[in-house]
Every structure is written in structure tokens, then in C-alpha cells.
Amino acid sequence: MISFIRKRIFASLVAILLVTVIVFILARIQGDPRTLYLDENLSQETYDALGRELGLDRPLYYQYWVFVSKLAQGDLGVSIHQRRPVFDIVLERLPATLKLAAAAFLFSIIIGVPIGILSAVKRGTIWDLAGRTFAVLGHSLPSFWVGIMAIFIFAVTLGWLPPFGDGSLAHYVLPSIALGWAAAGGQMRLVRSAMLETLDSQYIVLARAKGVKYRSVIFKHALRNALLAPLTFAGLTLGGLITGAIIIETVFAWPGLGLLAINSVMASDYAVLQGVMVTVTVFYVAISLLVDIVYGWVDPRIRYG
Amino acid sequence: MVSVARQPPKIHPAEAPIASQPNRSKRVSRLFRRYPVFSMLMLGLLIFAAIAAPAIAPYPATHGELRSRHAEPVILGGESQHVLGADSIGRDVLSRLIFGARISLLVAAGTIIIAGTIGTILGLISGWYGGWIDETIMRLVDAMNAIPVILVALVLAVAVGPSFALLLGVLSLGQWPVFARQIRAEALTLRERDYVQLARVAGASTGRILLRHILPGVFSTVLVVATNQVGTVILAEAGLSFLGVGVPPPTPSWGGMISDGRLYLTEAWWISAFPGIAIALTVLSLVFMGDWLRDRLDPTLRQLE
Asked: What is the reported pLDDT for A178?
């Protein structure tokens, strides 16, 4: 178990390190950051002074080292557009993204798991077909398109739900469906195939033969075992939802990290963009690490696999 | 009362007993069960549209007649010359869809070729050598999974500006780990096979064994993974184009068209609606195609349906 956790933590650190390298290299590709601050009729002295201040006169590996050690202390630089520390800006927007991802995750579980059970139990019927159609559509429809069409139908035409922004519970409905549909489909498929496998196993037949009630065979015997598979998927899903939120936030004007990232692209605010990237990666890595460890603890086969 | 008793194993269509005197309707239905007819037709149409775009598109894709601004689609009873309507600067939606297919397929094919080649090579090396080489490549694969490709694309778009090459690079960055992981697993088992061991004993070089003995063995896996990933790549490309960091306008892309139509939903919802349907149909076809191919090439992977 210890070596399993050590291995996973190591992989997580590699991921974060890789992102910092990418971000750093891309920042340098972008060119001299001084050109963003200054206009051309400034004197050479000021130009050089700023270069020294920003550490641009030092070798690249040193600049990278400074960048990483600042990062480790939560210093993500200053936004040239908002003139505030990036850390504060990112921290402000983070809860909205996490809430949206959590809502979509909840949706994927609440919808995906029951449909998966229904599909497996009523295998081969019209219910099964409907459930599988739901799943495959979630996989094939672009989330942002679902979002736009949902806004058009349910917010603009029918006026049932608010079209964008956050606030009340009603604001969560459309974005979490648009974001969570694909994940719900994934959950559904996993639950369905796991249920089918367990329903086929000997102990279910035994339970039925003993005269255990149908309902309790499904929910106590089969479902408990079938739920192990979707659990592994949970970490991936949650991580995917956080990155998926980037695109959905722009559709629904949801004030999270994604909208922040897109606005920073338009404002060429590189510091903010790299702050968002590092933050999202750290969260993704942390969540999948956590889920992996929990799962490895629940199911010993993973640890030694 | 529904029974939980074991259901008889579903007979795969290929093994289904053949009727002694198949009539026409039976033959047709067998054809549909045995081959993904819908997917084949859809993908065939798409490839044809992409190749023959200038010849079959009724209007130019990048110029519009302002007179036909927001012209209603003929298929919805509109009185215009535009089958699927026209957009906000009078460009024919159908023609743009046809030309958009070019971009989608070109990007998807390019990405799969680049990512498939890199992923397969690294997967083979990883599975063959094992040890620290395997460990390094696999940690890199894990790390890549944690890096939000969308954000990398946004950062790059700010740093160097969006372009076709950039799009290919970013998408390949996200795709190669999928290939590497699967090919590695396959190579690991093939390495222990007798014929590989014998080739080694016979004095074949590592390069020869990998190319002549292992690569043909993993090729069906490469094909299955590639088919499955094409859909993912098309969705990802659409997402990036939607965010404005895909193929730069005025080149029509499906994702970009959805984005263009967002502002005019109430007046002309078809601008956004049809490209989304095109994406969904394409990805749907690829999903079915991938499932079929997987069952055909590797029956052991067949899922419990």
C-alpha cells in the first residue's frame, strides 16, 4: 500500500512539474514580457532596469527556478490587466468552477446510476434501448452545443430557467446537465455492464433460489458489487468535469476559472492564464490521486495490479 | 414479474443460424445486424463530401449574399434557395457544413496519424524493454492525462496565435498517451509469446522483432483505438474551434459555426443547430464503427451487451 501511494504521489508530482515547464516555455515563446508593459519611446536604462527586476538577465534555468519557487509559495505573478495578484483572482473564481463540476458530477451519478441499473435489469427491452441511447448521445453530442440549444429551448423560448450566470439553484440546472451528460452516459454504461456481470454470477442465482426478494437481490446483492466499477471512474470523471467546465462556463457566462481563462485570452493576460492552468492541473492531480488511494484501499487488486 | 434468472447468452449476429430460404427482408435485416450500415453510409457520405466539397457545395463557403441573411431553411418550409438556411452574413449553412467536413476530417486524420505513430512507438518500447524505460514512459503518460489540453491550446493561442499546425500539435499531445497505454499492455503479453522468444533465439535484432513480430500483433489494437479516438478528436477540435482557438476563420469549421450562431439564436437558430447535429452524427457513426471493429478484430474484448 505504501509503495502504491508513493508511486501515485510521484506521478502526480511529475504531472505538476511538467505543467510548470510547459507554462514556463510557453511564456518565453510569447516573447519579452517587457514589451507588454512599455511603449517604445522609453529609455534603454528603464528597459534594462525592468529586465533586471524581472530576472530576464539571468540564465533560463535560473529563471525557471525562480518561477517554480515562487509558484510553490502561491505566487502566481501579477495580472497586467487587472493589476492584482493572480493568486487572488484565481482563488476568487475557483469556488464557482468547483461548484459547477460538483453539480455536474451529482447529476451524472443521480441520472447515470439508476439508468444503468434499469438498463441491466430490463436488458433487451425498450427501457434498455432508451438508456443506451441516452448514454451514446451523451458521448456524441458536443457539450457546448447541448448548452446552447438548452439555453435556446428552456431559457429563451420557454422561459423556464435562467439562461446564464450563477446564483440560485435554478442557475445550476442547464449548465450541469450540459456538462454532466457525457459523464452520466459513462456512469450508465459502467453500472450497466457491471450489473449484468453480477446478475449473471452464481451467488445471485443462489440468493434467488433461497427465495430472497427480487428487490433485495437487485439492490443488496447485485448493486453493491456492481458499484465498485463506477467508483474508479469517479476520479477521472471529476477531473474531466473540471476541465470540461472551461468550455461550458463560456456558454453560460458562469463566473469560474474557464470564463476567466477565455477573458484572459482576449486580454492577452498571460499571467492569469498560466495561473488558471497550474490551478486546474493541481486540482485534477489531487482529485485523481485521492480517488486512486481510496480505491486502492477498497480494492486490493488495484494495489498489486 | 421479471425474472433475474440467467438469460441465455445472446447469440452474436455472425453466429446466428442462417434461415434456409432467406427472403429479401430477412437478408436486409441480417445485413443491418452484421455490418454497421448506418455508420458506413454516414462516414462514406462525409468522406465524399469532404473530398468533393467544391463540386457539390451549392454556394461558396466563405462568401455570402447579404440579401439572404438569416434565410430560413427550405427543409423547414423556408422560401429561400438555402436548404439548411443561411447565416448572419448570408452564407449558405449547407455549403459551410460540407466544407467544414474537410477541416474536421483533416484534423482528425492528422491527429490520429501523429498521435498514433508516437503512441505506438512509445508503447512498443515501453512494453518491450520494461524496467526504468517503461516506468518513465508510463509516468509521462499519467502526467499527460492530468494536463488540461484545452488550457494548453488557449495558452498557445495567446503565445503564438491560432493555426492549423498548432491545432494538430495540441490535439496530438492529448491523444498519444491513449495509444501508448493500450499498445504497451498488448506488447507486454506478446513479448512472452513463444514465437517472439524463438525469433530472439534465432538472433533477430530488437528492431526486427518489434517491427516484424510485435507490431503486426498490436496492429488491430491500434486500429480499434484509432477508430474510437477519431470521435474524441472531432469533438475536441469542435470545442477548440468554438472557443476561437481552432482553425482561424474564415475557414469554415463545425465548432466555429456553432459559435457564430450563438448570437443569433432567436432569429436564426439553425446556424448553430445543424453543425451540432453534423458533429453528433459523425461521432455516433464512429462509436458504432469502433464497437463493430473491436468485436470483429478482438472478440475477447467484446462487452457484455
From this structure: 87
Q: What is the ipTM of this complex?
A: 0.80
Among A123, A144, A151, whose Cβ lies nearest the Cβ of B239? A144
Length of chain B: 305
How many alpha carbons lie under 13 Å from residue B219 in its C-beta half-sphere? 8
Residues 134-193 on B with a CB inside 8 Å of A are: 139-140, 142-152, 154-160
Lowest mean pLDDT among A38-52, A155-169, A253-267, A274-288: A38-52
- Establish if B242 touches chain A: CB-CB under 8 angstroms: yes
Task: Read off the DSSP letter of residue A58.
Answer: S
Q: B235: nearest CA in chain A?
A: A142
Say whether B151 and A280 touch across the interface (CB within 8 A).
yes
Nearest-neighbour CA in chain A from B6: distance (Å): 6
Q: What is the 3-state secondary structure (H, E, C) of B181-196?
A: HHHHHHHHHHHCCHHH
Residue count (chain A): 305
Pairwise CB contact (< 8 Å): B243 & A19: no
Amino acid letter, residue A187: Q
CA distance A301 to B246: 42
Alpha-carbon gap: B203 to the closest alpha carbon of chain A (Å) = 33
Our CA-based measurement puts residue B146 at a distance from the nearest CA of chain A, in whole angstroms, of: 6
Any residues with CB less than 8 A from the CB of A219 and at least 6 apart, and which?
none
Residues of A within 8 A of B235 (CB-CB) are 140, 142
Give the DSSP letter of residue B78.
-
Q: What local confidence, expressed as pLDDT, does residue B136 receive? A: 84
Task: List the single best residue of A140, A262, A272 to mutate versus B (max B Cβ within 10 A).
Answer: A140
What's chain A's Rg over C-alpha atoms? 24
- The list of chain B residues with pLDDT below 70 reads 1-23, 61, 64, 66-71, 74-75, 77-80, 83, 90, 298-305
Closest CB from A15, A27, A193 relative to B143: A15
Q: Say if B287 is an interface residue toward chain A (CB within 8 Å).
A: yes
Q: Phi/psi class of residue A83: alpha, beta or left (left: φ > 0; alpha: ψ in -120 to 50)?
A: left
Cβ contact A243–B146 (<8 Å): no
Q: What are phi and psi of A30, to 5 degrees?
A: -60, -20
The distance of B216 to chain A (nearest Cα, Å) reads 27
Structure pTM?
0.82
The pLDDT of residue B111 is: 93
pLDDT value at position A305? 45
**Which residues on adjacent β-strands are paired with residue B92?**
B86
Q: What is the pLDDT of residues A240-287, one digit of tens each?
A: 788 888 889 888 888 888 888 888 887 777 778 888 888 888 888 888
Runs of H (alpha helix) within B164-301:
164-191, 194-201, 206-208, 215-242, 254-261, 270-297
Contact by Cβ (8 Å): A253, A164: yes
The Cβ of residue B18 has, within 10 Å, a number of other Cβ atoms equal to: 8
**Exposed/middle/buried for residue A158 (C-beta within 10 Å: 0-12, 13-18, 19+):** exposed
Taking contacts as CB-CB distances below 8 angstroms, the residues of chain A near B284 are 136-137, 140
